[in-house]
Records
---
Amino acid sequence: MKLCPTKTASSESCVSVAQQSPSILVKNSGSLTRRFSWTRAREQVIRLVLFLCGALSLLTTAGIIVVLFNEAIYSYAGTAFFQTVSITDFLFDTVWAPQHPDKPRFGILPLLCGTFVIAGLGGIIGLPIGLASAIYLSEYAKPKMRRIVKPVLEILAGIPTVVYGYFALVFVTPYLLRPIFQTWLGINVDIFNALSAGIVVGVMIIPTVCSLSEDALRAVPRGLREAGYALGSTKFDVSLKVVVPAALSGILASFLLAIARAIGETMAVTIAAGQQPRLTLNPFRGMETMTAYIVNISLGDTEAGSMEYKSLYAVALSLFVITLSMNVLAQWVLKRFREVYE
Amino acid sequence: MNVSGNLREPALAKRHRIGQLFEWACCGSTWFGMVVLSLLLLSIGWKAMAWPIPDADAVDRAAATKTDAKANALLSPRPLSTRFLTSYDSRVPQKAGIKAALWGSLWLLVFVTITTVPVGVGAAVYLEEYSNEGRWKRIIQVNLSNLAGVPSIVYGILGLTVFVRMFGLFGHDGKVLDFNLGFAMLSIPLPFERSVISGALTLSLLVLPTVIVAAQEALRAVPSSIRTASYALGATQWQTIRHQVLPAAMPGIMTGVILSLSRAMGETAPLIMIGALTYLAKCPGKIDSLSAVWQHPTGLLEAPFDVFTSLPIQIFNWVSRAQPEYDHLAAAGIMVLLVVLMMMNTAAILIRNRFQRRTQW
Amino acid sequence: MSLFLKRTLWLSLLIVVQTTGCGSVRDGGTDPAGKSNSGNTGKTVATDGASGTSETSNTDKPTVGMTGKITINGSSTVYPISQAMGEEFMNLHKGVDVSVGESGTGPGLKVFAEGKLDIANASRPIKPAEVEACKAANVEFIELKVAIDGLSVVVNPENDWCKALTVAQLKALWSPDSKIKKWKELNDAWPDEAIDLYGADHASGTFDYFTEAIVGKSKSSRTDYTPSTDDNVLVKGVSGNKFSLGYFGYAYYAENKSKLKVVSIAAGEDIAAAVAPTEEAILSGTYKPLSRPLYIYVNKASLKNRQVAEFVKYYLNDGQAWVKTVRYVQLPATDLDAARKTLSEALAN
């Protein structure tokens, strides 16, 4: 900002603010002294616009809640799902058969079972491997190894889930599961089964667990490790008995987030696990998950407005509640049990 | 430190042995991811490079369609070929291609960028620059991390109600807004129905949390000395942000945006929910090559409101077909998708590296 | 950005806003192919015809220059036929845009009754309630038989015990309150393994027809099976599991003969009289009770459009050659002539 008298040509008469008399400031009325100035107004408008951008995320959450509430819980016109089907039936009935002509049954247990069996299988595979990779990368690995492995994990995380579903259906079932279990052990393996879906979901969550756990492990200060070595522990002792417990909150949070992701996984389970809701723990049979049900209903041509179509919203609401509570729990665990070091 | 052999204390030696086993187990787990990735890529690539040996059904089918002599001329040697990139889907696997899906994905990408980047960067700027560590900021931050964990299919449901149907506000048939632009007519259907714009808006809601978080990180990395120097010279807050902070943070923001966009490109479930067609043999706005843009530019105005399909949805459709040839076509489609994603990720990494070298604080 | 450039951009924006004004609003009526108001995905083929959006009236134009749109939707069983017809018709007449959907007989006829479709595919005859709906909306239509289908019951190729089933056995298996879970319960000599069931979902005309013919009441079926509108999922399922059983249109079996084994059906008690679905059996009517005619319902108002009239003519004449390539059975000559007569009468009016 130049404070030069306007009619002068040479630059010598442009003096700094400090050398001018205070009256100049009042008389020249720069934008900072006027009561109303376009600059300030523009700043306020921009601030408001940016606030609205930030508030859009709040709108999104509100939108999700409103839509699910309106279609599933309560609507003014009385057409919501739970206004027709009782909640106890929904939660405790063991048969999911919305298309039965006379008495459709809306028990979500088979779908919940499918979701949790597959998420559980994914967890059994993904959580230990992810944690072990994280421990290796933070404690044992040389920098060169880190530079190779980290991009590979990023690529694994970036592969679309349709690809994983395809891999499960076309390779895991016929070339891995059937030779081992059907030909060798004699257990019948369906073409759509929960185990193949569980395996690929496990592979999918490895990068999540690994990167979050590794961050947590690296945040543990070196002093703790050195203290362990000083007391005569082996590297194994230090890693497993000092570092991991110190980073436990981060590791637990990463586990919860990974399971939440496995629960919300859609395409891989739709392709690989089949479309029949089954209340069973047998991983070699096909079972439908909540997400697969939602996809199949919208791919099929159920009449919008029918009870069957509305069941979609009820299932989506349950899914949303489950994943949201797991995310909130993960954040609470992170905050509550975090050990802050100097 | 491999001292197990030299120690005299057996207990310690045992612990060292266990430690060694543990290290190998962890190393194996780390390599497991690599092994699976290479297995995945190799197997899909192998399937994409060759047609299956025709089984009895395929021979039967070829005999049945012999009436169409042109089919023989169009048969391709392997699923993944240039012809694959320039043909539409077909009921004859050898004729099928991924053109409609490629153009659909391209249009989606353009619109997702247009809608996400301003809003995401704006929100990040607000959170980092304007808001104090107050209640609003905390609420929005918590909200963002929750939204990042919501399954993508719930976004699809949101998009279906808000963009495709618009809460049913426009009646059963809907209305159409016509703008006479002089050289062409721009017709905007309300509600948006199953068009590219519904898909793009749904996807941008999906990737917005990640974009905002990435942009926040980039903005935080800009040292505060830049800002204070700018204020000292008399700039307003917006001038500081616009001329100093944003350009400095731009590489980080762009990297984050490109990575989020590559995630959006791979999403299937939300698009299925809002009604992207699984079997489509035309491109949005009928624009199927650059010459088509020249021939009828009004297609550019129609395209956002036209039906569409996308690469992952086409792959999903082929996976669900029964004939084994479609498995190979799906593999070819997957290779194309992975190549596109790899190009985007490489671009992001290149930008990050190039600008990291340039800016020296 | 320079000041000049900025000011130019603002100015041009102002000009654009002035010329567009406040845009005009009109009702979205009959929407172009692929956009339906139900919000469901459906499976619609929207193809790359030229951009003829105006529907040409019945003037004397040469067939080469014919343009227009034809919207078809309905049964997923009839879909392969209509889609083949549509594709070949478009190869002959480049200006015509045919789009074929696969929403299912019920939803298709519902939209047809609202006057939004030119042609509805149906794998069962139209119901009285649907006829009423058409009357209420002033939609006049003609019913044309176009092909015959033999609904096939299929099992896995490794299934060497089940070669034939009676209608009574199928009824016991598929009734709504059926408790049969294992093969052994159908026949003592068969393995003691659980039956994996696959079938049509209840938007499908196939479902309506199968339940009516086998169980006795339309839409009355057990629910613990894999229902799918996508017959390919059913084919994959049955061909993948040794102890599975499913039913779908004959074409889907014929396309995948090496992966499936078809079961002969005995209409009466005598299982030795079971008949397998072959082209001859379906044509002669000996494959009972699962032989069924496939229909299209054509909106009489749409027949006034040149491209629709030509298309339906093509369907019943030159296009019949494609019925065999999509593995359905052509109508016997008498039925085909009757259909052609219905069409020419409707066109004459």
---
Amino acid sequence: MGRFAPILPELMLSLGGTILMMVAAFTGRRGSTITNWLAVALLLGAAAALVGAPSHAGAVFDGLIAADLFASFGKAIIFPAAAVAIIAAHGWFEREREHGAEYAVLIVFSAVGMSVMVSATSLISLYVGLELQSLAAYVLASYRRTDERSAEAGLKYFVLGALASGILLYGISLLYGFTGTMNFTGLAAAFGRGAPSLGLLFGLVFVLAGLAFKASVVPFHMWTPDVYEGAPTPVTAFFASAPKVAAVLLATRLCIEGLGPATDAWRQIVIFAALASIFLGAVGAFGQTNIKRLLAYSSINNVGFALIGLAAAGPQGASSVLFYMAVYIVMTLGAFLCVLWMRNEQGEPVESIASLSGLAQTRPAFAAAIAVFMFSLAGIPPLFGFWPKLLVFNAAVNAGYIALAVAGILGTVVGAYYYLKIVKVMYMDEPVEPYARLREPVQGLLILLAATAVSPLGYLFAGPLAAMSDKAAGSLF
Amino acid sequence: MTGLPLLSILIAIPLVAGVLCLFVRAEAARWIALLATLIDFALSVYLWTLFDPGGPQWQFVERFPLGGGINWALGIDGIALVLIVLTTFLMPICIGASWRAIGTRVSEYMAYFLLMQALIIGSFAAQDLFLFYVFFEGGLIPMYFIIGIWGGAERIKASYKFFLYTLFGSVLMLIAMIYMAATAQTTSIPDLMAHDFAKGAQTFLFLAFLASFAVKLPMWPVHTWLPDAHVQAPTAGSVILAGVLLKLGGYGFIRFSLPMFPDGAAQFVPLMFVLSGIAAIYTSLVALVQTDMKKLIAYSSVAHMGFVTFGLFAMNRQGIEGAMMVMLGHGLVSGALFLCVGVVYDRLHTREIAAYGGLSDNMPGYALLFMVFTMASIGLPGTSNFVGEFLSVVGTYRASTWAAVAATFSTILAAAYMLWLYWRICFGRARTPEAAVMRDLSAREWWLLAPIAAGVFWMGIYPETFMKPFRADVGRVLERMERVAPAGDSHLRAGQPKPAVIVGEEHPPEGGH
């Protein structure tokens, strides 16, 4: 058993997920509520199980995965985010009597995949984790199979995702072919032997391209707005949070541990991707009228900022990426929970930004929560969303990339425009038909918690969070 | 000093009151806001009495590191002190000015105002670089709401312009701050003020900070957001914008640009003089042709801020003290002028100058106070602005004659546009029948304007009260600047009087004819 202690969370989730699937199959629709809550408990239990061996065992299974603090930091934000995605679905699917319990089970399996992603220290475990996560995600995107938009989103996601997987695999095969190893340490050693060969460079580019697709980084972002818009909102909330964190963390570990000696080779790619994401994410959001599409661009924009931290490399850069993603996930989940609450009087979901008009007068607290998330996503002080942005720019400046920091920060000004637009619609326009009031105390509590965390009160927790992300980033070096 | 964290309390009172406002009805919110701002004012006056001008540079220092590079570090010197008192003095007046003028969403409105007060005081009191930035930028959010929700017809455009313009200016400063923190290995403002940055870096740091403060102050040519914001903002919003928010720009120059990057600043003195000169003359001319009262006063603000930058970049004692006094005086006078516009706007709902006239007949009290503030704005001796403008021009003259000429010329233009404005509004005959029947100032309006008038005279007749707290601190800034201060082109020396000649004994000097 001691051999398996470092992967206790993954074991819990895999076995628990399988059992839950059985529970779901035999209880049918009646059991969906209990399955959901069991899944939430399972995810939180897995998060609790991170203490101890899963955080300190180091390389296990012949270097296939690493049970270190970096992985644990990722899992500690991924598991709760997945749990929130399950809670977010409560009351969403029942309306159309299509809510089987598979939703929660799929999220649990996806969480296993993400868990493997953030611990992967070998190209093969990287690929397995990524695919496990993605397969669950394809199904989730088309979860409302009777809805054309949802089916379209699933198909689009699947086809483009398969293409990206192909690119990634091709890159992996090149790397393996030219180095003879799948292991990150082996890769680092191979890249360390002088200037990388053309084959290695190609492999590196293809692998990064594949990962960029998963993290929806420009220029591989095209699927994001469509899938985010089409997928059921709880699923979108999930896509925008946990898998994104997993993909960014995976890229961080690969770049720093596996491709560390080739930093100059991948840094230019990351810098381009970061700036392109920031500006395209900001400009693309301008004309949007659908809030989910807008948040899709916002997520592209935000991942761009995290990549600035990665471009800085070094412990400080890695730490800023972790910090950024931890705050990002709270803001995003909070924003999407608010989108979930946008229902008209008949209880049908509304997604147009225009429907938010005058919300500050009809539902002041709700509007205030959205405003907090928007200002925070825009990175306007005194909201806490400002601090992670400051940290990534700090890392970039300390690494000597002042021009990159300047370009990135000008991107925040461009991006601020559309976040302001939402606030303007809510606060400065005349009220329209008010939303229905939902009875979802748990979701309400989560929104409140998230809004508090990204409000200026968040600075109180910045110290411990920074200490943790520093430690976690330290385990990569 | 007392053991109480007075500065934190000063920030906390409006914050708590602001949150409280959100949960009560309109009338209660008004009273809570008034009470909170009055308590804050009383507290800041108490702070002033405790402040020891001859004592250490930084007083009432508080420092609580929160970890992760975040420090709750507060402390003030005399410069910050007088600006804080200006803020707390104007705030109750703003609340009073909004008492009836704001009829919708009053609780929210009061909450934003109180939040803004907390953030402004925070910016003046912050001793940590990033804490300053958080407060400085945070002020955008409540102002955005105030302009956008309660503003005039073009409010949305004005609020966007205000927000994005100032944000754009500030983000470059943030990068500069990150660089400073990395090079100097500290984020403490007092430490940074003593740190000597490399000369090459100072150029860029100065430019980055200039981007922010020039927009905030505002300096020509990045002033264009100001007239829009002013015209659209509700009266109290304009008062706080002109009275206090603009002063953040000047404060930034004194606190950061001059003492931290003296070499950088010295390089740009000619540029700053040119920009200030254009601001002083060009915007005065623009003010002259305005038909909208608020716009006229907004442009006059830009022109007056020219005096601030003239004085600051003269880099001598008179200049910097003059700049401080212009900021204080302008805070009072422009605030009062916007209130004066608000008074007639509340009655007639137009800001067009052409709609008024002859108000001295039916509104003698109003005409009297308006006259006081008009004269103060021109810089009549005995009023607040005279002291500041005079010192600022004296300081400028020591640095550059031509700059002083431009500054003086602007005073003449100020007299032109202000007197003409006053003439068109108060003298002659009413141009519209509605204007002829407007009632004179109500008791509430007297309460708003009279204290400012008292302040204007106090500052004009006995400025020492206000200059004493920051005299030593200006000296400390000057110590940092001494090396680089411009030499000046006016080589003053005592005249050589001709030897006295007794009448009748004059001879042509050359003999031999």
---
Amino acid sequence: MPGSSGSSRLRRLLEEWRAVDEELRELRRRNADWEYIRSLPPRVRRAVEAYVEKGDLRSAQRASGLVLEEFVEVLRRARVWTG
Amino acid sequence: MSLPPVCVMDACFIIDWTRWGRRDLLWRVFSTGFVPEPVLREVVTPTPLRALREWMVAGLLTVYPSSREAEDEAIRLILEMRRDPRIPRIDPPEALCVVVARRIGAAVLTENRGILRAYQLAPESLAPAVVWNSLRLLAHLYATGLAEAGSFAELVREYEDEVKHAFSRREVDAVARELGLE
């Protein structure tokens, strides 16, 4: 049944995405330099924290008020690698 | 699906890839590339700008000029993707890369999860564009012998350490399995 094999592929894909998101979230939380993050201006700090939790680069960058590259540089300094 | 000889790069890909020492290997895979004008405006620091300039001077990279029509199509694509809550949000510059790639039958090089997942979910919806991230490009470089390394895992570590980009181990394993690199 093509419908059922399609829905099973979709289910596997969504499970995989959830697992990947969780793995990357754990990695960001574990490696982050929290002391550096706490030293950031409040708006940027909140944006970095949001990125650590959600991994949504564009939303976090917009919230930070920085341009994309500046925000990525802050993330690198915070040891929160993009992924 | 065969890989097109032309690529379109977004800003997330550019600002990471150009930090890698072996970045020029890109041009062993693609014969030419485009960067849409709004994407170029997002690149502001010396390292990526220097790489882009070198590639343009060498005739490898061309700026794809903005047009109202393409930008409108990008907005339509964003709205279409927002209807599916499983797809992370995408922004106009990334959407524009997909629009350009669809028009010219190119590969989109991006780290944007929205685009990567939309493509995983329904590749035909973005055809004839093909969507790759740096991990897939690294796997291709290793599989074809263009990037030498002790192992695929070693190549991935080299990229992660130089670029400060973290890959999911699950995704590294999946792409290695798919290309028989284990």
---
Amino acid sequence: MNEFFAMDGYGIYLWPSFALGIGVIVLNVILAWRSLAAAKLDARRRLEMQA
Amino acid sequence: MNWTWFHRLGSPPHVYGFAARWAPWFGGAATLAIVIALYGGLVLAPEDYQQKDAFRMVYVHAPSAWLSLMAYSTMAVAAAVGLIWRMKVAHSAAAACAPIGAWFTVAALGTGMLWGKPMWGTYWVWDPRLTAELLLLFLYFGYMGLRAAIEDPQKADKASAVFAIVGVVNVPIIKFSVNWWNSLHQEATVMRMGKPTMNFDMLWPLLLMFVGFALYFAAVVLIRLRAELLRRERGASWVRGVLA
Amino acid sequence: MRSGAGAVARLVVERDLRLAFRKPSQLLQPLLFFMIVATLFPLTLTPELSRLRDAAPGVLWIGALLSSLLALEFLFRDDAQDGTLEQFALSGQSLTWMLFAKTCTHWLLSGLPLALTAPIAALALGVPADAIWSMVASLALGGFALSLLGAISAGLTLGARRGGVLLSLLTLPLSVPVLVFGADATQRAIAGAAIAPPMYMLGAIAVLGVTLAPLAAAAAVRIGLE
């Protein structure tokens, strides 16, 4: 198992690299959802003001 | 030829509904593909003769770089469609692609730096491919900056569309620069004429990663596209139905 | 009134030249800026000519790029404000052609003078005398390409807030190839090597620019005028 994390000594580059990739993947999903939620909230408010 | 499907693509409520229905499926498929590919690449694949385990960074670096290019190309095509056929939905799609593409350009540059240090001894070289990828990031910033700076939404759409199209010339430069110039960055091993030069056990996780990233891109674009459509069509009656 | 393409171009060029010479400070500022930038490097880096010579291609070309960004301000700004651009667009003549004429005039007023006065800065940075004319040629050609590319971003930022900063942000990525090949040409000239390869690339970029940039700039201007 330790061998797996060490990755022939390249672990200190490899794991941050994957962390960056996965981080960007997760971040973009969160940002997209937040953008959608904000747009829905905004649209709801406008509809209420019109009603 | 029946063009109804194309005309329906111009209708915001239709596209919104499509996006809402399909995004979760793309997302689910993407997660599955990426998880399996990660296992295949990190655990199953044998280590490389020269790079040992360091080569495994290809499984995050290459798909990120590819996504950064695909996002820009999609953005440019959507922008062109928006300009030519005057489809607001197309402009919304282009806007949706930009932040995703910018982030993955950062990921490509970052993972590339982390791979470059152990392999080349340096975090950065000013070779054509890396420089052009950095320029891609600036092009994304320029696109988003231009959109933000123009008040009128239609003008913002069209002006940023022109800029996206002008900048698309950078994409083939990134792709082919390693063939045109002597570069530290290695040449393509997968997307080339003839068979890929990688061993199959190492290749299939990479291909699956590309597929996973593509599905992921579709899912996230569909989420952002919905947000864009809502923002632009606020007063329209279909919005009422969607929010209920 | 003849309205052939040549006559239209002549009208545009003559008008721009006449207007430009009424405000000579507008023409001198980019040149002065270039000189100041070129001077800052010896002051901050090193006064040793041999080391300055190594940095000279980069310093000269970055200075030329920044100076051209400054000069782009006067390409469309005044005409957009007083409605002339609108007149051009509505005139029934080819806006693309008129903007191309404006861009060429802009180069005559900014890029070319910069190329011709650059030897002063170059000699101060240790560039050997036999490399000077090659450098001037590369700056002239590169400056032409920069004016063409800059016309696109100038057109796009016509209606934007804080257009000046945005103009630079948009122009810089597009200008990098010009910078790279231009600096390479100057570097080779200093080393005594053949400058033909990068000059051909600069030429290719300029040709591409001539065919496509005015079109993109005209599209951009029309969008801004809507």
